[in-house]
Amino acid sequence: MIMNEICKPDAALARLILPQKPHPGLFYIPSQFALPLIHRGKHYAFHLLTKQLIEAELPLSARVGEGFDPLIEAMFLVPEGKDECTYYESVAKMMRLFGQKKGIPCYTILPTLGCNARCIYCYEEGRKQVTMTPEIVEQTIRYILETRAEGTVKLKWFGGEPLLCPGIIDRVSDALREAGVPFKSSVVSNGSLITPAIVEKMTTRWNVTNIQISMDGAEPDYIVRKHYYADAGQYHFVMDALSRLSAAGIRVSLRCNVDDGNWDGIPKFMDDLRENVAHKDNIGVYFSPLMDVRTGDGELDFWEKVIAARPLIEAAGFRPRAYNEPSMRFKANRCMADGGSIVIEPDGSLYSCEHCPSNGRFGDVFHGVTDEATKTEFCRSDRTREKCRKCPFLPECTSFASCPWTDAHCREMREMLTLDFLKRLIDRKTNTEEPDGDDSVC
Q1: Count of alpha carbons within 13 Å of 190, Cβ hemisphere only?
Q2: CA 395, CA 381: separation in Å to the nearest integer?
Q3: Average pLDDT rounded to a whole number, residues 382-390
Q4: Which of 8, 64, 210, 393 maximizes the CB count within 10 A of its CB?
Q5: Hey, CA dihedral for 302, 304, 309, 313, is it positive or negative?
């Protein structure tokens, strides 16, 4: 059997786990984490746990000595009956312990729940639009200084619209700098308040390395969906801001939230971006189906349209940004909640994730963690959902059962996006450019 390696396994994981030793007498079958595909007439397999990509055809079953021992050693074939979910949980636990640091590595800070827009999909709709008081700002600074991990502190400014409160970002940034604490920041914003003066603050005072900006399609759709309190030409202003940010060296993720209501306007939107954004080098673009799409019956059909729209992004001169594609390295922490990060709300409350329900509060910046049980229970990694235990995409997902995010067809959606990613990866690795041949899933 020929096993041509396209991508090596994750190096950190390979140092932790040994190759699987073939045992005569055992009956081997394909691992649940081994995703087979046919691309341009050739057979491949990608191991979603180890991240190894090979050119090889997996047998339906095998025994030691039948020529498939390399596939057994690489765990593409495993003993029949092996509980691979439990194995994955143990590997993830070891990797977490291996990379665990004392203290908090990242703080998501919501200086305000206020916003100058009223997006039709806002998941904070109905919440009181409170803003941090000076007292809470100062206590937030003290909390960060007392609880931070060694090394560079990561700050993520979220909201609401965080740029409604540049003074708060100033104060926290200045305090960390005065304390000699290295830090870097990211921002999630609608982009409508990013003036040249704000870009200057980002680069010289706030240490912003990247920003996510949401736009929602062509101008008519953007106006209706953003629903600004005062429309003052934000559509074109944000495009100018994108160029300013990119020129300043800040990495931009441009998120376009989409559904059937604005999809037909996407080609016009990409044309507008191509014509109006002068500096494109640091900008990645992706389409994000709204939750009504992702929980509906038509989710997979819509994801097919999203995949097919990739050339529109490239033709406009931008880099398509990966979204829900597999990582080529093992990630012990799949999201902020199980990575030790903390969310600080405008009233000083502490949460594990900005999407946590209200009963997920476990403390505040004045008293620290006051409900350890709630904090621990939310992101217990040993509580994989029963429906997820046999899923091949478990290493690419959040395994703990408390995560509030759900998709109607999550497994099928991830398979669709993963196969598209792997085919493009294979073409890059093999320098293949000829037209597609027989592409199918095994």
Answers
A1: 24
A2: 12
A3: 82
A4: 393
A5: positive
Take residue 391 and report the two structure tokens written for it.
């899923």
Rounded to an integer, the average pLDDT of 417-431 is 93
Residue with tokens 């006051």: 370
Which of 102 and 74 is assigned the larger pLDDT? 74
Domain 83-408, CATH homologous superfamily name and number: Aldolase class I (3.20.20.70)
- Rounded Cα distance between 194 and 241, Å, is 6
Amino acid (one-letter) located at 251: R
Cα(31)–Cα(77) distance, integer angstroms = 5
Spatial contact of 183 and 150, defined as CB atoms under 8 Å apart: no
Which helix or strand (DSSP H or E) is residue 215 part of? strand 208-215
> For position 192, what pLDDT does the model report?
96
Is the separation of the CB atoms in 413 and 305 below 8 Å?
no
Cα distances (angstroms) measured from residue 279 to each of 239, 245, 318: 10, 9, 10
Token digits for 41?
A: 């007439």
Q: What are phi and psi of 366, to 5 degrees?
A: -80, -40
Contact 204, 241 (CB under 8 A): no
Cα distance between residue 226 and residue 331, in whole Å? 34
CA–CA dist 157, 155 (Å, integer) = 6
- Helical segments of 106-208, H only: 134-147, 166-178, 196-204
Residue 192 per-residue DSSP state: T
pTM score: 0.90
- The domains of the chain are located at 4-82, 83-408
Could you tell me which residues come within 8 angstroms of residue 275 by beta carbon, excluding any fewer than 6 positions away?
none
Q: Can you name the residues that pair with 45 across neighbouring β-strands?
A: 36, 54
Q: What one-character-per-residue DSSP string does 16-42 give?
A: HSPPPPP-TT--EEE-TTEEEEEETTE
Q: Please give the average per-residue pLDDT across 241-264, as a whole number.
A: 97
Q: Are 133 and 148 in contact (CB under 8 A)?
A: no
Helices (H), 74-218: 84-99, 134-147, 166-178, 196-204
Q: Name the band, by pLDDT with cuts 50, 70 and 90, for residue 17.
A: confident
Q: What is the pLDDT of residue 437?
A: 37
Residue 419 phi, psi dihedral angles, 5° rounding: -65, -40
Query: Which residues partner with 373 through β-bridges?
Result: none
To the nearest whole number, what is the mean pLDDT of the chain? 90
Strand 4-7 with 106-109, pairing? unpaired
Q: Looking at 124-128, 250-254, 372-376, which range is the least confident one?
A: 124-128
Residues 84, 93: Cα–Cα separation, whole Å: 14
Does residue 54 surpass a pLDDT of 90? yes
